[in-house]
Each structure stands twice: as structure tokens, then as C-alpha cells.
Design goal:
Largest sheet of chain B: 6 strands, mixed
CATH superfamily of chain A: MetI-like
CATH architecture of the largest domain in chain B: 3-Layer(aba) Sandwich
Largest sheet of chain A: none
Radius of gyration of chain A: 20 Å
Helix content of chain A: over 70%
CATH topology of chain A: MetI-like fold
Structural class of chain A: mainly alpha
Order of helices and strands of chain B: EEEHEEEHHHEHEHEEHEEEEEEEEHEE
Radius of gyration of chain B: 23 Å
Oligomer: heterodimer
Number of strands of chain B: 20
CATH class of the largest domain in chain B: Alpha Beta
Number of helices of chain B: 8
Distance between the termini of chain A: 61 Å
Distance between the termini of chain B: 37 Å
CATH architecture of chain A: Orthogonal Bundle
Shape of chain B: globular
């Protein structure tokens, strides 16, 4: 049962979703990871657990609560609807929101362990040389964290790429708006179009493998060694 | 007029307290000495403003007190650590200039050319950090700290990670920095050989408290020091002058306030100073000069000054041999010799450590 060319719409939508999600996560994840490493707050452990929740929660559970939260009666969806006229559920913006939460630990944890391994020494050293905290962060911490950012970016991107349960719960299956690769594959299989499912699945498999291969080989070339 | 570094810090951690109140000369090299866990590094971190506690005043300028707190990045402090802490993503030149660029133009007193010359960094400038040896790294780290034109240089065990040969390469540079650039240095170490090669003023810390401090000769002739440093390091530090070399016997003769000491041949010209360390357990006492021949070369005429507290089988005696000298003898000998303060005594010295000898 071989039908025509593969519909590239879902592929493009997925790449957009993953790209935007990773950008948001790097922006929010950096201060969050830094805070987790350097704070003495008693809330640290609690926040750390919340960040890790998406690792263990079934995606349907996360998706279910997000659906309620983002829907017209939820607090996020309700306020967004009041502002823009449409709720977040079943929209691309809603998917971005959901993916951001869903992939949060995949970005925050590599950054956190990266900052942890650097410790206070680089910041203190830079301070002894006259650099303010911001200056030290940009001129020393960021360049020394290339590994951590590479890992965070790739893991965040790849994890968002493969998300299924949360997307289905929150975004449904609207072509051009919320239909991502994983759902397209599911649809193809449902209607027994295995060849198209093969192309998409094989593509995703190859892509994921190549990306991980790149990360592991780059990681060897980016030594982080502050001593 | 001597400018002062006033430092009074109190740090309370669950398992550690630091409580110091010092007025040190804001010149020369001050060595902070003590076993690990004595609070040396914490003291240094307080000076750097990395622990917010207490008061500090540098040459008349308040850096921190109840109301004022100047953070490290705005203190005129340079720091050198045990690990070089060079930035691996920058070349040597960029590392050197990292602090220089961040120092206000009108505060820049030291410039790249001068530092490169003083520390002999000419051939390293375009190197990557991972292509440097341990000793080269520490020289670059020292240069990087100096290029912030600091008013005070803090060094935290900067040689601890280096082997003896590398240490001996760097020590002259540290002396040179202090002399040529006249930057006061606070130098933390637990190595006695570094102490003796560098020290002008000494602070001995133990369990977060100052045990003794002052000029090195004074500190080391204190018999109460026994509780603060290892037994093997106990003993006076004496400043002598080279009289002449006796190449036939391979001996250098030293002058100690009119008395003479002989040590193995030294590569120092006559007239120059040599600091020696005489461990108290290498000194034995006799009430009369030895009759007949003796194999001991060094016998100093002295006077008993003070008899220390008896502990176990031994007792420390403080002597006056022109400069203070310490001897550790057995309590039995003390009773046999019937020593009293003021009594003349002959001190035979079995071994003399030169300060550049590594112990």
C-alpha cells in the first residue's frame, strides 16, 4: 500500500516546535540551573524535584493537567483567552508551552551538572580579576560551559522531537497546527500506511542517532578543565 | 612610616571557627603558616571579601566594616591559588590581560611589558594554557594577578602542587615581585621550606586562632611554639652573614653576631646574608667547652634565657647566642646540668638547615 509523497508538513512543524522550545528552555533553564547550584534556599530540593517530575510522570498525566490548565477554564488558558480571544489548548502556542515543561529536565539537568562541576572557583577567580558576576558569567562561565549547553540543546531538541502523549492530550491532531511527526506516524500506522510510517520513523531514528553521535564526539573535543 | 593591614575577622561554622585580630605591616611578605584545618585559607578568603565578616583596613583605607563592604571585584587585590585557575579558553596573553582590561585606566600601574619581563614570560604569550607546565602556569597566574595592579597580593599555597625543582624556579620570582614592584604579599602555606625562603613577617594559626605572629626570628625562638607546629620544625631561625668559603674542606663559614658557624659550601658571595634554621633537637648543651678534640664543628657560647614547661621526658630551653636559639633536651639532662636562667652554656649544633635546602 504505497501512497504518494510523504507530507512534510508535520516534519516542518516538529522542527519549529523543537527549535522554539529549546530556545525558551535555554533562556529559562540557565538562571534556573544556576540558582539550583548556588542557592542556599530551603526550597531548592523541592524545586529540583519539580524540575525532574517530567522524567517520571506518564506523559498522559502531564498532558491531562496541562489540558485543564491551558483550556478555556484553566488559569493559564483562561487568561490567555481573555487577552487574545482563543485558549492555548489545541494551538501551536499551547504545544510550545507543554513541550517546555515536558523537556525541562533534559535542558536544566545537563546545565546544572555543568555549573556544579565548575563550582565557585571560576567566578571567584574572575572576581579577583575585577569582573562583576554578569561579566564573569559571560566571559568565563559560558565559554567553559560549551559541553553542558551542547548536551542540553541536543537532549532538549531530541526529546521534544519524540514527544507524543503530551502533544496528543494538549494539542490533538490538527494538520498544520499541532500535528507533529510522532502523531503523523501513529496516524499512518492506524490506516496501515506502513511505507510512510517507515520513512518518517526511519528518518527520526537516523536523525536521533546522528545527533547523539555528534554530541558524544564533540564532547571529547571540548575539554572542560578549570584548574 | 609603616602602613598597616588591619584585619579582624570572626567566622563561625558548625565545625570550625576563625577568630583573628591582627595588625600586619602592609609591606614585605607575610607568611600565614599552620596545619591544614587551621583556618589559613578562610583567613585569606576573609581578606578577599569572600566571607562577609569582621573588619579590614588596608593602608588607611577601609575595605570592610559594619557599614562598608567592598566586593572582591572592586578590591585592589590580586589572588594566586594552589591550582593556577587559568582560563582554558583563553591564550596566555588573553589570560594575562583579563584583569588588566577590567582595571580602571587610572589605576593601572603595572603593564604587560614589565610583568612579562619580571616573570620571563616572553616565550609563553601565544601558548594555549594546556601547553604549559605546572611551573609556567603558576608564573602566568602570578602575572595575571599582578596586572590588576593590586595593593595586596594573596597567595594560597601557590607552590603546593609543584615538585621541588619547579618550586625553586618560582620562589625567586615571588621575592622579585615583592622587591621590584613593592606589592605586599600575604602567603599561605604549610611548607616550612617555603616559609623560611620567603618570610618577613609570620603568622601562625592553629584551630582558627593566632598562636604567634611577628618577625620570623622572634616567632621561631618562642618556646611556646611547640604546641603549634610539628616537633620536627621547632627551632630558631637565625640570620647570618657569609664570611668566606673554604673550598678545600667544602665549607662556608658564617658570622653570627661575632660567633662562627660552618655549613656545607654555599653558592653565595661573602658579605651576603644567609638564613639558617637550627632545629631544637639538633642542639645539645654542655656547661664547659669540650676538652680535647671533638667532631662537632659548631659550638656556640650562649646563656640560658628561659626554661620551658616540662612535657614528657623532654624540655625546651631558650638560649641567647647573640640571637635566640632553642634546644630540646631530656628532663634528666636538665637535672644533671642543673640549668638556671642566666647561666653560661655551650650549645653544640649537630645540624644546620639552610633555607633553600628542601626539608
Amino acid at each position: 500500500m504505497i501512497s504518494g509523497a510523504v507530507d512534510l508538513g508535520p516534519v516542518w512543524l516538529t522542527l519549529q516546535l523543537a527549535g522554539i522550545t529549546v530556545l525558551i528552555l535555554l533562556t529559562l533553564g540557565t538562571p534556573l540551573a544556576w540558582w539550583l547550584v548556588h542557592t542556599r534556599s530551603k526550597f531548592r530540593v523541592g524545586i529540583e524535584a519539580v524540575v525532574a517530575l517530567p522524567l517520571v510522570l506518564p506523559p498522559t498525566v502531564l498532558g491531562f493537567y496541562l489540558l485543564i490548565l491551558l483550556g478555556p477554564n484553566g488559569w493559564v488558558g483562561g487568561s490567555v483567552e481573555a487577552l487574545t480571544g482563543s485558549p492555548l489548548s489545541f494551538s501551536f502556542a499551547g504545544l510550545v508551552f507543554a513541550s517546555t515543561l515536558y523537556s525541562l529536565p533534559f535542558v536544566v539537568q545537563p546545565l546544572q551538572s555543568n555549573f556544579e562541576s565548575l563550582g565557585n572557583a571560576p567566578i571567584e577567580t574572575a572576581a579577583s580579576l575585577g569582573a562583576s558576576r554578569w561579566d564573569a558569567f559571560y566571559s568565563v562561565i559560558l565559554p567553559l560551559s560549551r559541553r553542558g549547553y551542547l548536551t542540553a540543546t541536543v537532549l532538549g531538541f531530541a526529546h521534544t522531537l519524540g514527544e507524543f502523549g503530551v502533544v496528543l492530550m494538549v494539542g490533538g491532531n490538527i494538520p498544520g497546527k499541532t500535528k507533529v511527526i510522532s502523531i503523523e506516524i501513529y496516524d499512518r500506522v492506524e490506516v496501515m500506511e506502513y511505507s510512510q510510517a517507515h520513512i518518517l520513523s526511519g528518518g527520526l531514528l537516523l536523525f536521533s542517532f546522528l545527533v547523539l553521535l555528534m554530541v558524544y564526539s564533540l564532547n571529547k573535543k571540548l575539554p572542560v578543565n578549570f584548574s | 612610616m609603616t602602613e598597616l593591614l588591619k584585619a579582624a575577622f570572626k567566622v563561625d561554622y558548625p565545625d570550625f571557627n576563625l577568630d583573628v585580630d591582627l595588625q600586619l605591616p602592609a609591606s614585605g611578605i607575610t607568611v600565614v603558616f599552620g596545619p591544614s584545618g587551621s583556618g589559613k585559607t578562610t583567613f585569606l578568603r576573609c581578606l578577599a571579601g569572600l566571607e562577609k565578616s569582621g573588619k579590614m583596613e588596608m593602608a588607611g583605607q577601609v575595605w570592610q566594616d559594619e557599614n562598608i563592604f567592598i566586593p572582591l571585584n572592586r578590591r585592589a587585590i590580586g589572588m594566586v591559588f594552589q591550582e593556577s585557575r587559568l582560563f582554558p579558553h583563553l591564550k596566555v596573553r588573553e589570560n594575562l590581560l583579563y584583569g588588566y582590561k577590567r582595571t580602571p585606566v587610572d589605576s593601572r600601574r603595572l603593564h604587560l611589558d614589565e610583568i612579562v619581563r619580571v616573570l620571563s614570560l616572553e616565550n609563553l604569550l601565544e601558548r594555549k594554557i594546556d601547553k604549559l607546565s605546572g611551573g609556567e602556569k603558576q608564573r602566568v597566574a602570578l602575572g595575571r594577578a599582578l596586572l590588576t595592579s593590586p595593593k595586596l597580593l594573596l597567595m594560597d599555597e601557590p607552590l603546593a602542587a609543584l615538585d621541588t625543582q619547579r618550586k625553586n624556579e618560582i620562589i625567586p620570582f615571588i621575592r622579585k615581585v615583592e622587591k621590584e614592584l613593592s606589592i605586599p604579599i600575604i602567603y599561605v602555606t604549610h611548607s616550612m621550606s617555603e616559609v623560611l625562603q620567603l618570610v618577613d613577617t609570620m603568622v601562625i594559626l592553629k584551630d582558627g586562632k593566632v598562636v604567634n605572629w611577628g618577625p620570623v626570628e622572634k616567632v621561631f625562638s618562642d618556646i611556646n611554639l611547640r604546641n603549634a607546629i610539628d616537633d620536627e620544625h621547632l627551632g630558631a631561625v637565625l640570620d647570618t652573614t657569609v664570611i668566606e668559603h673554604d673550598t678545600e674542606f667544602g665549607i662556608t663559614r658564617l658570622d653570627l653576631k661575632g660567633q662562627e658557624l660552618s655549613v656545607p659550601l654555599q653558592d653565595i658571595s661573602p658579605g651576603q646574608g644567609l638564613r639558617v634554621h637550627i632545629h631544637s633537637k639538633d642542639v645539645s648543651l654542655a656547661t664547659q667547652p669540650p676538652e680535647g678534640l671533638t667532631s662537632v664543628l659548631n659550638i656556640l657560647k650562649s646563656k640560658v634565657k628561659r626554661i620551658g614547661e616540662k612535657a614528657g621526658y623532654s624540655v625546651d630551653i631558650e638560649l641567647d647566642a647573640g640571637q635566640p636559639l632553642l634546644a630540646t633536651i631530656t628532663r634528666k639532662s636538665l637535672s644533671n646540668l642543673n640549668l638556671k636562667p642566666g647561666q653560661p652554656i655551650y650549645a653544640s649544633i649537630k645540624a644546620i638547615r639552610m633555607v633553600h635546602e628542601n626539608q
